[in-house]
DNA sequence: GGTAGTTGTTCAGTGGATTGAACAAGCGTT
DNA sequence: AACGCTTGTTCAATCCACTGAACAACTACC
């Protein structure tokens, strides 16, 4: 009966937005992005977000006119304008451009799958991907999200935060997402890793998100304090993974991180 | 003095939106996307969009809370959430996934630079790019836009439209964008090409956007009448471009287009 | 230092967006 | 076919988001 019973109201009860229509419109976009099929009807949205139908209708018309959503018969889905806007965001990040250039020239990395990611709330989000050999074709795409505890980049970016922030995000009794038998289970495990990562300067993910796959990650030093935290990672097959190779990759990752962190590297 | 004098009002004078706040919020996003530096202040936005400062402030607060924009001191820029939303849109397009798979296996295309694009108002927008050989590294990225008259995909998608739509978009006295000496100049030229493209089933772009580079494109048949028009293109260096190669590429492009057009190809 | 130009924030009044009920149109069932 | 239960649209009354002016905080330039 597809009873998706998640009446998460658009407004957080106490938080009256200075422009409710905008907040609700954003909630509509979120709902469409999270809907498994990517398509919802007016009534679906009105019900899920707790907005009167007539108001929802107005919102949808305005969103459609702005091409932020598309109507297809009775179904609404995300609009193409969002691809433009997302691309506009990425094109402004000089780091992404330099990332590609560096990967091509790096002796070891140029043959591997390298990604650059950014912390985004309690997730990481992939900004760009360089694929040296399509041998290990990844399923993740640009823009995809991943829990912090399940990825090397996530852990290395977490390690950059202050302890009290980590504590706030991962209280001792928190339930961590699990994707493989080797996924971290407890906040304690995660925090132990964080201190280890701080010492050694890089993070390792050992089949914690995908069996047979390992990941190394380093942080990009945040230049000038402003701007969000970036991280870099290499992905490799566990089967063909050696200590010396790892050392080489970490070395090159750190070089890349350094040149990204210092504008005129 | 950076006198960007473009007071393009957010509302189109006569068009009263059913949810003005949303329309204006979308205008804010547009303005940020088009701003050369990607950063604008509250006053910049208020001035450019013709919105009172106090209202603009409200909009920006709501947008920031939704993470659709970010504040950095006094400057506002696009937010990360837009990358997520754009990615969510793309992930729903099965065509993109199949596009990659096909390109890898195609005998000729697998070595070339292939792209899939979509018509979007009076532009095309690139949805995905497959790069066989990084020999001809393109400057265009996913999400980038391009005028219809300047690209092979643009022309081939234009040729899919009805004549009266083309006439409306390109009246005889229209001024076409020019990027190289070989760019089309007049609507007449464009329309002549459109009829030619309809006959031969594919479009050629001969150094019209970049000197030294040629492009071939075919349309993807729109299955079931709904859904936007997609197009495929291959890019090659004019220097190494031969007739037979072109024939092969067009053949494979058409195969790909066919399998994309028919879900269970 | 003083002035004139910014900037972004505050606040009470008002005009228009939002709303709920009533509407019409579409489906599936009995 | 008539029913029950959907769907999305219409419309007048109300409430609240928007507004404009006044505010405070900076910067720049004599």
Automatic annotation (TrEMBL), chains A, B:
Keywords, sorted A to Z: DNA-binding, Transcription, Transcription regulation
HTH iclR-type domain ranges (all copies): 19-80
Superkingdom, natural source: Bacteria
SMART domains assigned to the protein according to its UniProt record, in alphabetical order: HTH_ICLR
Limits of the IclR-ED domain: 81-265
UniProt-listed PROSITE patterns: HTH_ICLR, ICLR_ED
InterPro entries, per the entry: ArsR-like_HTH, GAF-like_dom_sf, HTH_MetabolicPath_Reg, Tscrpt_reg_IclR_C, Tscrpt_reg_IclR_N, WH-like_DNA-bd_sf, WH_DNA-bd_sf
Name of the protein this chain belongs to: IclR family transcriptional regulator
Species annotation: Arthrobacter gyeryongensis
């Amino acid at each position: 009966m597809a009873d998706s019973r998640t009446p998460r109201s658009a407004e957080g009860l106490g938080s009256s937005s200075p422009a409710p229509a905008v907040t609700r419109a954003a909630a509509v976009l979120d709902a469409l992005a999270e809907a498994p099929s990517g398509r919802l009807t007016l009534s679906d949205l009105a019900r899920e977000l707790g907005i009167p139908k007539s108001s929802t209708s107005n919102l949808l018309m305005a969103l459609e006119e702005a091409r932020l959503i598309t109507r297809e018969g009775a179904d609404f889905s995300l609009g193409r304008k969002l691809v433009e806007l997302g691309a506009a965001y990425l094109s402004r990040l000089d780091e992404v451009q330099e990332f590609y250039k560096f990967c091509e020239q790096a002796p070891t990395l140029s043959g591997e799958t390298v990604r650059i990611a950014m912390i985004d709330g309690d997730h990481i989000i992939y900004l760009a991907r360089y694929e040296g050999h399509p041998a290990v074709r990844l399923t993740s795409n640009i823009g995809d999200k991943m829990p912090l505890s399940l990825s090397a980049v996530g852990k290395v970016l977490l390690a950059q935060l202050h302890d009290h922030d980590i504590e706030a995000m991962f209280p001792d009794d928190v339930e961590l997402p699990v994707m493989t038998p080797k996924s971290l289970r407890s906040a304690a495990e995660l925090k132990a890793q964080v201190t280890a990562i701080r010492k050694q300067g890089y993070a390792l993910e050992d089949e914690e998100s995908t069996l047979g796959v390992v990941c190394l990650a380093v942080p990009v030093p945040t230049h000038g304090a402003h701007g969000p935290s970036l991280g870099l990672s290499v992905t490799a097959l566990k089967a063909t993974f050696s200590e010396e190779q790892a050392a080489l990759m970490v070395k090159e990752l750190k070089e890349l991180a350094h040149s990204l962190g210092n504008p005129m590297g």
